[in-house]
Amino acid sequence: xxxxxxxxxxxxxxxxxxxxxAALLQYLGNPGNMGICVACxxxxxxxxxxxxxxxxxxxxxxxxxxxxxxxxGAAFMGRDFRPRAGSAPIVRFVLGxxxxxxxxxxxxCPWRAILRLAGGDLNALFGIAGLIVGIGIGTLFFRxxxxxxxxxxxxxxxxxxxxxxxxxxxxxxFIYPQVADEAKSGVLFYSLKGPGAMHAPLFVSLAVGLxxxxxxxxxxxCTMGAFRDLILFKQVHLLSGVIALLVAAFAVNLILGQFHMxxxxxxxxxxxxxxxxxxxxxxxxxxxxxxxxxGRQLFMAGEGDGDAAVFVLGMIVGAGFSxxxxxxxxxxxxxPHGIAAVFIGLAVCLFIGFTMRKKTA
Length: 361
What we know:
This protein is mainly alpha-helical and 361 residues long. It has one domain (2-355). The chain has helices spanning 2-5, 8-27, 38-48, 62-77, 89-106, 110-118, 124-143, 156-159, 161-175, 202-219, 223-233, 237-256, 273-290, 294-302, 306-324, 338-355; strands at 84-85, 152-153, 184-185, 188-189. A two-stranded antiparallel sheet has the order 1-2. Strands 3-4 form a two-stranded antiparallel ribbon. Strand 3 (184-185) and strand 4 form a beta hairpin. The protein is globular. The termini are far apart.
């Protein structure tokens, strides 16, 4: 299994599966052009546990839980569970915070940018262009010796912390399910309207998350890595999987009547092209400096990478900041302080990139 998913046919197969499942999740109840969005779903989780009070985006998304637990299972099956940590964790946390801020200015992670385009949302073109530019800036730092340092082998207990957190989140969903017409059930918050109130059936979402987590861990699927490898090494292995995701989602959207081309009136999107672009420049640079897109960070956390787990926690906390301080966008446009946050985030990333370079003799 490992050899197949590491091959060109394997990564294409994974992209096709993810694209089909994402479009089906939208059909079964997830928000429009948001069958899977790591940033948006982590934002919903942040709301579910009360890190922000934006009532329209609060739900404990089972897909995210499944990504981590599926990756954990795949890592054990493939003898690939490698507990490690210690590679500039505080920097990774900060990068996670600003990655989420940039993604919420755009309103989506790299996966959702692809899925938005597959659904006909032409605003996604600005986001994808910004993502590529941000990753491109990151590759300039790579060429100059940028490095967060080497992670060290550590205790197995460190490697299972994030999977245990996700298992705990799942347990909370079962202990405190949503009561009809109640915005709070026990300790969890639930949206009564808006994107947070739109979701596929719990067990379907969880099953999809587990399957995607398994396949992505085996194949090393990563949208950031796809563009990084193309720019740095002229390699298209990972990119072929991303293209397959786009094609599959586009085809399923056409079949299900979910394709609507244009800029205006797209679901959970705004038409401010410059800030769609700039938000993803920030996010793409953060993903590059941290070594993986938000999906890949979840999969690495599932296979024992404590540093990736810190990045994930940074994104969840960043979601709380974004909604508590007016940084996140809405269909009306960029939040009142979102533009300033993008420039601050870019300054922080440039500081990290310039100061964390190994000097060559």
